[in-house]
Amino acid sequence: MSKGGTSKRAAEDINKQQKKIKNIDEVLKLVKKLAEQGRKNTTAERSLAELDLAHSVREVVDKDADAVLDEIEATMLEVAQSILAGNGYSFDIPSRAKGNQLYVPELDRIVLKDTVSKRPFASSQACRKTAITTRILGLVHELCNKQINVTKRDLFYTDVKLFEDQRESDAVLDDLSCMLGCTRSSLHVVASEKGVVVGRLTFTEDGDHIDCRRMGVGGKAIPPNISKVSNIASDALFILLVEKDAAFMRLAEDRFYNDYPSIIITAKGQPDVATRLFLRKLKLSLKIPVLALVDSDPYGLKILSVYMKGSMNMSYDSSNLTTPDIKWLGVRPSDLDRFNIPAQCRLAMTDEDLKTGRKLLEEDFIKANPAWVAELELMLKKKEKAEIQALSSFGFQYLSQVYLPLKLQEGDWI
Amino acid sequence: MSKGGTSKRAAEDINKQQKKIKNIDEVLKLVKKLAEQGRKNTTAERSLAELDLAHSVREVVDKDADAVLDEIEATMLEVAQSILAGNGYSFDIPSRAKGNQLYVPELDRIVLKDTVSKRPFASSQACRKTAITTRILGLVHELCNKQINVTKRDLFYTDVKLFEDQRESDAVLDDLSCMLGCTRSSLHVVASEKGVVVGRLTFTEDGDHIDCRRMGVGGKAIPPNISKVSNIASDALFILLVEKDAAFMRLAEDRFYNDYPSIIITAKGQPDVATRLFLRKLKLSLKIPVLALVDSDPYGLKILSVYMKGSMNMSYDSSNLTTPDIKWLGVRPSDLDRFNIPAQCRLAMTDEDLKTGRKLLEEDFIKANPAWVAELELMLKKKEKAEIQALSSFGFQYLSQVYLPLKLQEGDWI
């Protein structure tokens, strides 16, 4: 451990902390317990069908290419029959407006109610949008048939004359996702990825065997199309979800996962869809806890909320993108005093920070957890924030060799 | 091939193009020739020492950890001797100002002339900066000793009290790089990476064997620390440098490199230091041509200039970051008409675009190549730009199945 940058007192503190760390088995005792609880609590996620809901509601799920092809072909068969019967044709598009969204507490997720709008071809108002819808149905049919994945931008460029503006093709794509009852990735239209993963994890990606224990320090780029990922296997006790690249690099280079059996993931800031899908798939397949390491500021919590709750405008797709049960390991506001983060490594919160923080206090996912409320209130009271890197003030490897082992040993997650 | 989005005439065009494509061996004939030329032309990059320069000049080179440790220890020995002799101490810091930069046409790169400024400890003006320099020398010594890599941000946080502002520690780090005559990555301070690679390439990264032929569609994240990369091996004929993520994804999913032996790299937009170092290392080790696929707009050329020339403010480090010999494969302004890119997929250049384009015409790396000048002049005359994705208007796989094979077969790079 380097203590280069620290005073004599701080060096003594670090020494004391290091002495507290027991052998690996002891350190991992509480994490093991948490992992076991997780495996026992697999009361299989409840589905909409099991609930007796007043409204008939709609949700989107992952479907394989054949199922999407079936849906599209059934839709077009109806269209053809309607035309042959002399009625022209129209699509029934579920409304994605806020008024049509319903929060289901039993499932802890948002679904769509049954408001549907007609999109008829024989209407001067809807004609163009109906044509776009038909065209994109055809393109998605081609994608599923060929089993290839493209970006929204690629899709737009296949028929710029008709779509005119990418926002038009993007919006219709979301309509189709609701109409066909499947996720956007099931439509074979994917987001570009920016996440990386390293650690005790192997999987198959498009036929290739991927071993994340042997990915150097750069890690494996998280695949853009989750449907190509299978055979997930791991002897990890937990997933460490890291907000930032620099912390990921430190842990990867120190091979943190060798001593502490884990899978380390980062989306390098704001989570992208591919990383969220990947995290969710790991959690569901492996049933191990997810521990989060984020900056101690409102933005760090915002990032957690995207992983846990998703964003409002994709609410109908949220259950396929989110990982509701994430433990907040650190860096927590209470850590700043507990670990004696030097005053000059703490930053004053801006007015914007304080506003965001106060808004977060009103959010359900915070309110549901009193320990989170207490931490956030402490942050707002002290008006201080700190980055994960602030831990470097105790030496470059303090994060991997002292902070995280202590946190794990004490089961200090909330 | 999908021709879904195209008129009958366009479909005929695509058919004609497809028929032109011969068997793989024929397609690769010209690329093979180019690769052979490349291998013959290895008149070993000339070094500064071989040139008879009027000025005594200074350049920075990659050094291993032991060499950097030696440099630091020699520097500190001088410091100690100076103090013991009762003279206090000071550092000699090479100036990085524009007036101290010299373009050496024989080497086609910028080096630093011999202006050096004293940084004495016993000066009220320089004292703080000298303290910071000494401190960072100590920290870099620790990093090289432990063989670990950190980010600039980590470095800053090790002593916020002294550094106060990250710009201070960053600037001194650049000073040290010039003073010790080694690259920033030799100081074990690395940039965060965002590039990915896939294709016919194997290497060792921090002891792990990495096989980029088996990296699914997501690819391998390019490592932040190039010094951990060794044993580079490949049977590829060329490196395909791609500007954007979406095109990378298309080529990775289609396993373009199976039929056309290649290594595919992208930095997902603006090139980062890690990707530039990686490309350079591949080019030097494998001695195969680099073909670039960028948007047909001034920004695409700007990106090429960063790979080829580097950025001005790191000029002293440029020779370690750049890959001077890159061929511009596409999408070139002349391709728009040649491949009949539909009018609605072409975008009008903005005033800003035109300004950037005209400035580029003045740059040496453009002027050095008349074919590039002609293309850029055509762009400015037509006032049209186009993204790589515009090729999707002929079908999602047109890029990998028609456009690139035709380009390669015809040797259509400049």
From TrEMBL, chains A, B:
Catalytic-site annotation from UniProt: 157 (o-(5'-phospho-dna)-tyrosine intermediate), 157 (nucleophile)
Cofactor list: Mg(2+)
Keyword Metal-binding: yes
Gene3D superfamilies for this protein: 3.40.1360.10, Winged helix-like DNA-binding domain superfamily/Winged helix DNA-binding domain
Limits of the Topoisomerase 6 subunit A/Spo11 TOPRIM domain: 238-408
Every Spo11/DNA topoisomerase VI subunit A N-terminal domain range: 128-189
Catalytic reaction list: ATP-dependent breakage, passage and rejoining of double-stranded DNA
Any one GO molecular function term: DNA binding
Pfam family, one: TP6A_N
Gene Ontology terms describing biological process: DNA topological change; meiotic DNA double-strand break formation; meiotic DNA double-strand break processing; reciprocal meiotic recombination
PANTHER family: DNA TOPOISOMERASE 6 SUBUNIT A, MEIOTIC RECOMBINATION PROTEIN SPO11
Similarity field: Belongs to the TOP6A family.
Entry protein name: DNA topoisomerase 6 subunit A
